[in-house]
Amino acid sequence: MTYWTLNAIFLAVVAIVAIVAAVRIRSTRPWVAVAITLGVLLVMTAVFDNVMIGIGLVGYEPSLISGAFIGIAPLEDFAYAIAAAVLLPSLWMLLPAGSRASGAVARPEERA
Length: 112
Prior knowledge:
The protein is mainly α. Helices cover 62% and strands 4% of the residues. The chain is built from 4 helices and 2 strands. It has helices at residues 3-25, 29-54, 79-94, 97-101, and strands spanning 69-70, 73-74. A two-stranded antiparallel sheet has the order 1-2. A hairpin with a 2-residue loop joins strand 1 (69-70) and strand 2 (73-74).
């Protein structure tokens, strides 16, 4: 199994959850925040993955990667950042509002 095959499985699940969240929320505002976060996360992934690979902390089986790189980091490595940046906010948006607020500081309208 190649890294792209493994990524495709995980990213398919992420896409399904994100589509369900987008249909239920019907607002573009949260997705703007997700896009900004994704951009920052991809830049950080590029920097730190290149450092980790460069010093030999992690490595990849050459026969399992596509051969496309950003620096010395294989392109496949960025799928995990994409999955995290999209899946976590999508799940958060799907949680009932009461579940999200439990244990958190009370909203201004709840303080009285």
